[in-house]
Amino acid sequence: MTAATLLPMFSALADETRWRILTELAEAEASASALAGRLPVSRQAIAKHLAVLQEVGLVEPVRVGREVRFRVVGAELSATAAKLDVIGREWDRRLAAIKEIAEGL
Question: How confident is the model over 35-45, as pLDDT tens digits?
């Protein structure tokens, strides 16, 4: 994952409604209508948020009969978490080096 792929994903995750949608979908697949029934957001707004989440690869549609449900794409979330872990370890390494230099003065 590069910054070009991480930035849109973080932007999508930064929205509170989209985060709540992901939380709901982590429990079970759901349609936009079902999500609108659980969240204080219109079905049209839910559909727009789902489109953003789908665009960055965090959810995918699943047709069940005539209904379109959405589910979380766990692999994308796992890849993002792994990249954040790498970034965090690099910062820890840099901060440890700065601490060592400061304590040596």
Answer: 999 999 999 99
DSSP annotation of 55 reads H
The answer to whether residues 9 and 56 touch, using CB atoms and an 8 Å cutoff, is: yes
Beta-carbon contacts of residue 77 (< 8 Å; ≥ 6 apart)? 58
In tens, the pLDDT along 48-93 reads 999 999 999 999 999 999 999 999 998 778 888 888 898 899 999 9
Distances (CA, A) of 20 to 33, 44, 86: 15, 16, 26
Reported as half-sphere exposure (CB side, CA atoms, 13 A), residue 47 has a value of 5
Beta strands in 16-79 (DSSP E): 30-31, 59-64, 67-72
Pick the closest to residue 39 from 11, 69, 30, 51 (CA basis): 30
State the pLDDT confidence band at 98, using cuts at 50, 70 and 90: very high
